Amino acid sequence: MFMGMSCRVRVVEQCRIAPPSDSVSTTTMPLTFFDLMWLALPPVHRIFFYETDHSKAQFTQTIIPNLKHSLSLTLQQFFPLAGNLTWPQESTRPEIQYINGDSVALTVAISDYNFDRLLCNHAKPVKDFYPLVPQLCNTASSKVFPLLALQVTSFPNRGICIGLTLDHVVADGRTFHHFIKSWASTSRLEGKNSTMSESLPCYDRYMVKDPNGMDMVFLNHYKKLNITKESFSITKDPMAPMDKVLASFVLSRTDIKRIKQWVLTRLDNDKERKPPFHLSTFVLTCAYVWVCLIKARWVVSGSEDPIEYFLFPMDCRARLEPPLPNTYFGNCLKSGLIMIKRSDLTGEAAMAIAAELIAKVIEKKVDEDDILKDMETLFSSDFSSAPDQILSVAGSTKLGIYDTDFGWGNPKKSEVISIANTGAILLSECPSEIGAVEIGLVRNKSEMENFASFFTKTVEGFPPIEDDNC
Fold first, then answer.
1. Range with the poorest average pLDDT among 44-53, 237-246, 417-426
2. Are 347 and 323 in contact (CB under 8 A)?
3. Which strand (E) or helix (H) includes residue 216?
4. Would you list the domain boundaries of the chain?
């Protein structure tokens, strides 16, 4: 049976994979306030594409058994992902509960779709990708909700796609990719668990202190939204947007140097804004994409001058007291927020203004003794009246997305198609050039065409690099 969308997928098996029997005892993990931030949001869909020449027989008889076995071993170390989200009557907050025998849904499929079309950077319908990611299957109980689902799709003689659907409430990007890379490594070694003791996930929730009572702030906020113990349910996955396209763009190392040189020149011309701040690759990329997107939307929306919002994640692990290890399992992010009139980001100095704003917010948070300061204000802010003026960042260039090798080499392409519903920009390292940045974007066709034009022509119009150390 084929799923009815542009990318035809035939499901050949649906099964469940659990950690080895009796390898993990029943465990309950309370959600921290970092986790509670994501309670009402839809799941994340991440896809990896691998080029590998294989037959249908190799796929079903060798590749899938190895992936199942290595997944089971990996889930022994990452067992909360096999558990469920629940809100017990006796608890003041939702919990992640693992019971011996809990498992992850795995779908095995085959597709005859054009594999190369899915790998290209140019715009293609985002709906083509949705058959490659699974839904979070409902459990028998209406009060117990799965956290992870997986799908492996074969494109015979061309490649393999691994699609993952994750409830963000259980893990942020660092934790998510810790799991994926551990699974990939175990698969590559054909079932030999490669997770060294120093890289095992850390589950000590008592390390996360909440001096400002943020957990109750979040729970009271959800109560106003009728998300309570009695009415609790997961946020359903929105329908695939039928009219939007997905595309990828790359800023090379040379592009980033030219942007930095241009920004420094503009800031030097204004002595009051000479930068004492760090113009990192992240800052320059975000500023460039934000301004290009605003200009692309300005062409469509006309002459109004509303407030634009820019939200970006900041990992708090190293900034907490005590600091958390990089292997801490769960969420540990807060957002930086910038608000500015649209007209300020459409003039000649727009790029410099955006870069300065982003850099200063980052430096302020790094310098603050309390990294959690203003977290309550940001969470309670109401952006619902201006969804089109909010731009957020997903992903990171520091997660090593393209170092995820299951035994077929590194992925040729990776996408997060859930940005189709959030409007976020997706950042990752570029697989073809060290120091370059890959930007993923989903927009309607006209806005994407406008953005592509601004994205290409703007950096081409900057002067050549004068100082290679810029």
1. 237-246
2. no
3. helix 214-224
4. 9-224, 244-460
pLDDT tens-digit series, residues 114-135: 999 999 999 999 999 999 999 9
At residue 202, the 3 state secondary structure works out as strand
pTM over 0.85: yes
By annotation, the residues acting in catalysis are: 168, 405
The stretch 306-323 carries a mean pLDDT of: 92
Nearest-angstrom CA–CA distance, 134 and 167: 12
The label of the residue with tokens 């067992």 reads 79
Sign for the CA dihedral angle at 360, 366, 369, 370 comes to: positive
**Which of 328-332, 336-340, 419-423 has the largest mean confidence?**
328-332
Inter-residue contact 63 to 160 (CB < 8 Å): yes
CATH topology for 244-460?
Chloramphenicol Acetyltransferase (3.30.559)
Q: Is residue 191's pLDDT more than 60?
A: yes
- Per CATH, 9-224 and 244-460 having the same topology is answered yes
Q: State the chain's mean pLDDT as an integer.
A: 90
Closest CA to 232 of 10, 364, 439, 36: 36
Partners of 427 in beta bridges:
395, 439
Residue 372 is given by DSSP the state T
Token output for 106? 């795995």
Extract the tokens encoding 258.
């030219």
Contact 386, 307 (CB under 8 A): yes
